[in-house]
Amino acid sequence: MPAFRNVRAAALPAKLSRSWLLASAADEANFAPALASEADSVVFDMEDAVPAAGKIEARKRVVEALSTGMTAWVRVNGMETEYWAEDLAALSKAPGLRGVMLAMTERPEQVTHTAMRLHAGTPVVALIESAVGIENATAIASAPGTFRLAFGVGDFRRDTGASDDPMALAYARSKLVVASRVGQLPGPIDGPTVGALGDELLAACKVTASMGMTGKLCLLPEAADTINKGLSPSESEIKWAHELLDAHAAGAVVGDGSYLPRLARAEKISALADSYGLWNA
């Protein structure tokens, strides 16, 4: 494991990743700090973070990084752009590629065609950023190659005219959550709360979690740890799960019809606490 990669984060399965840090491929100096951060998953960004004139050079520096010891996800340009095919052709040869995030996903076949151009089994996160994409989310979630769904909040708002009020975005978030469940995917990844840190970011994570989303994009390395905390079981939830599971192991009797659902929730919290290393936090 290269010394610059956060060992804890590197060992966490991407289906459980809470923080997804976008590191601009406009400058290779962004890569190492991102990989050393607390972000569960790091995404080298060749799309929105890079102007058209810099796309080819950005692709070269990403492939170089992924061929010399670094491991990361990569956000590739949308299928309708002139860069998509070359992005995938270059990345298919990069040994450090963990998966791709497909920008501007609107149809299920876009994910499938993307996956087909990469090594078999390479996961694809479908970044949904438009009204068309939201309405097709169930089909996208069920498409061969789709690993998780992600919400491109900024472009969705530009497409629809919606504000950043949680109520204005509730339908889109709910659609992604239900679609993910139908497609038997991990919970979807929420969009970034640009510029937010500390309590403001924690409040945004509460919205994310309340909608049933289990990950969140971010643009700053220092945001990752806050997102990890905001999207993990709380101390009170872990304590409750611990007590219920201990009582169950000791032979507690089922009291009513809510017991088995509560037991299942406690087991889920327990599994997440183990995965995130929270029992002794």
SSE blueprint:
Blueprint: H1 7-11, E1 19-24, H2 31-36, E2 41-45, H3 55-66, E3 72-76, H4 84-91, E4 97-102, H5 108-116, E5 124-128, H6 131-135, H7 137-141, E6 146-151, H8 153-160, H9 170-182, E7 189-190, H10 198-210, E8 215-218, H11 224-230, H12 235-249, H13 259-276
Parallel strand pairs: 1-2, 1-8, 2-3, 3-4, 4-5, 5-6, 7-8
Helix pairs in contact: 10-11, 12-13
Protein described:
- The protein has 281 residues and is α/β, with parallel strands linked by helices.
- The protein is 44% helix and 14% strand.
- The chain contains 13 helices and eight strands.
- An eight-stranded parallel sheet has the order 6-5-4-3-2-1-8-7.
- Helix 10 packs across helix 11.
- The longest helix has 18 residues.
- Keywords: Lyase, Magnesium, Metal-binding, Signal.
Q: TL;DR?
A:
This protein is an alpha/beta fold and 281 residues long. Helix content is 44%, strand content 14%. It is built from 13 helices and eight strands.
Features:
alpha/beta; single chain; 14% strand; 13 helices; globular; Aldolase/citrate-lyase_domain; lyase activity; signal
Overall geometry: globular
Structural class: alpha/beta
Oligomer: single chain
How are strands sequenced across the largest beta sheet?
6-5-4-3-2-1-8-7
Using only C-alpha atoms, the radius of gyration works out to 19 Å
Helix content: 40-55%
What portion of the residues fall into strands of 2 or more residues? Answer: 5-15%
> Overall pLDDT, averaged?
93
Q: State the end-to-end distance.
A: 25 Å
**Element pattern in H and E:** HEHEHEHEHEHHEHHEHEHHH
Described by strand count, sense and barrel closure, the largest sheet is: 8 strands, parallel
- Strand segment count: 8
Keywords: Lyase, Magnesium, Metal-binding, Signal
Cofactor: Mg(2+)
Signal peptide: 1-25
Domain HpcH/HpaI aldolase/citrate lyase: 22-185
